[in-house]
């Protein structure tokens, strides 16, 4: 097994061996391998099991020495402005490169009991030259399949540390966490909390690390009760915000590690009758369109989603041409976007 871009892969069984193992003809086995629909479900199951059992490697139909024409973009879901920003960046870069893009969502969906192979078989059937994966978690078997088939791939903002050698593009999350906290410190806040995503995600832990570094640089002690972890959704963030407000000494400001989570924090504050920013300053992360639409408009850290996606596409094109990027991780800068959700803490504002 080798990584994408290498010259060869481990030899595997022929299609004739697979057909014999499954008890079908070679043309029938070929139909299954190429994603044809005119195969009985039971026959498809037998052939698929034989493919997996024997470790059959389908040779890609594209020629990486030539200019590729089709790439796949796999996203976690399509029902978000996050996905829209990524799609826009990929589409613009693909147009410049003369590529077509196939978009699919829900990597873990199952069909006919085949959660691992379904989207991979479709990928092979259409002969895509490369894959971009955004917030889509791959299993070891899926990584191995892409490597065996010599299909180059790039991860966009992976949630977890990818395997060694895998190329990825993301944002400078540590820098973003530090700038959000420094902004609040500069307004005079000293009791600053953070609502972050799961501890296991690399971008969440990096944002919290930036928050802690900013506090340390300001000579403030780290308060564990001011750090809350939850899933990246409004409901979880709303619960975390209520928990912070229930503390004996609640914060005067909160850094929320996504704009979506910030909406949940806003909801909790409204339920407690607290006004933003008069009684609580809030900073988000992402700079999605919803940040501008919030009331008040959300101060947030912009991560360049479209630029990240376009950069990933350009790296993928290089890999499809047989080149290899100099490094496996590319990080793009973040920047703070001040809006109306932050102000000096109560009691430290000049009187009218």
What distinguishing features does this structure have?
352 residues; alpha/beta; 6-stranded mixed beta sheet; 12 helices; 12 strands; disordered N terminus
Describe this protein's structure.
This protein has 12 helices and 12 strands. The protein is an alpha/beta fold and 352 residues long. α11 (289-293) links the parallel β9 (281-286) and β10 (299-302). α1 (15-22) packs across α3 (41-54), α4 crosses α12 (305-320) and α9 (234-245) packs across α10 (259-271). The chain is elongated. Mean pLDDT is 86; it is low at 1-11, 60-67 and 108-115.
Structure described in brief:
The protein is α/β, with parallel strands linked by helices and 352 residues long. It has helices spanning 15-22, 26-33, 41-54, 81-97, 118-126, 140-148, 173-186, 202-217, 234-245, 259-271, 289-293, 305-320, and strands spanning 70-75, 100-105, 130-134, 153-156, 167-171, 192-196, 227-229, 253-256, 281-286, 299-302, 329-332, 335-337.
**Between the first and last Cα atoms, what is the distance in angstroms?**
70 Å
- Indicate the percent of residues in helices: 40-55%
Gyration radius, to the nearest Å? 24 Å
Strand order of the largest sheet: 2-1-3-4-5-11
Summarize the biggest pleated sheet.
6 strands, parallel
Strand percentage lies at 15-25%
